[in-house]
Amino acid sequence: MLVSRLTTHNTAYRFWFCKGLNLEIGLEMYNQSTAGNNTSYGNRLFIYEVEGLGGSQDSEIAPTVRQSGITKFTVPYTRMQQESQRINRMGGRIVAVYPANGDVSSAPAAPSAPAKKEKKKVPTNTYRPKAPFVGQCISNEPLVGEGGNGIVQHIKFDLSGGDPHLAYLEGQSIGIIPEGTDKNGKPHKIRLYSIASTQHGDDLDDKTVSLCVRQLEYEDPETKETVYGVCSTYLCNLPVGAPVKITGPVGKEMLLPDDEDAKIIMFGTGTGIAPFRAYLWRMFKDGERAINPDYQFKGFAWLIFGVPKTPNILYKEELEELQAKYPDNFRLTYAISREQKNAEGGKMYIQNRVAENAPEIWQMLKDPKTRAYMCGLRGMEDGIDAAMAAEAEKEGIDWVDYRKTLKKEHRWNVETY
Question: What is the pTM of this model?
């Protein structure tokens, strides 16, 4: 804060402005002859200039409201911290603090209340089903290795040329409208897919979006015929260069926090890896770290990933490369159901891995910096809940109630199907 004075007889005029704040210059008149002469902080008074309070009287310190909309408080030094916190709760913003006796040079650093964090702008429904964005398939690559189950593809779409631009964040989804019509001759409805790329895209140029898609295949219970999913089959067989109708983005449940020191636990099965790939790439990929100077992840990320066979570990090489490069910040745990055994000798599912690591996971969940995310098959939910309930019970805590608290704090996030 910079201060200048103009003195005439016993009346002084003080001009002030705070560097780095978008403030109008203020003018205060005070009488020097009545100013306090105390030099001990404990007995001194300070003037708080606050905007955004209006005529609120919800303070123990009586304010004076000036025509400029700025409220002036006289605050004892011993109450500065309390008053700063109270002003913040009331929605006010401290724009200047200075001694009531005019001796600016002797003022201590004022304890300011935490600044209000700007809400992250989340793009939603930039494009809707009636007017979708028409992108183009850039690449369509298989992710399942030889001997694995099913067909899973990593598909990248070109988003350039859109007006407005189809921007998105890690953890969101986009909708795809497959070509053709349904049995009633109507256009197919959209299907939502979790985005598998960071907000900058795989090419780091803000012009692409990627999906991780498994071709749906099941047996019709009546006819016993094999049925293939309409949209998943369309996407898995989409040729490079083909146009594709895209809607969205949508979703706020799975957004990654901006906290560089956060602890992130990820429970995923199959293509549920999609949002976690986006998280991990943003946290650890060299290119991402280079273009995100304001987000240099220093926390801890733990992915517990369930698949049927080793060839079904999607993005395996890249995941293990990140683990090797950041062993203190990233842990990778597999649950390979058809190759590994659980403690009882049965198949190793993701819920078994969670049960094995429940004590550590439980301790992490008690840390306010921890957020847990679950994405993939809905069948894993009950098993994970059972494992966490058993651990919470050891401390006399009801897991269902605790989980509700976590959800309320956006620290337990689930997107299953």
Answer: 0.72
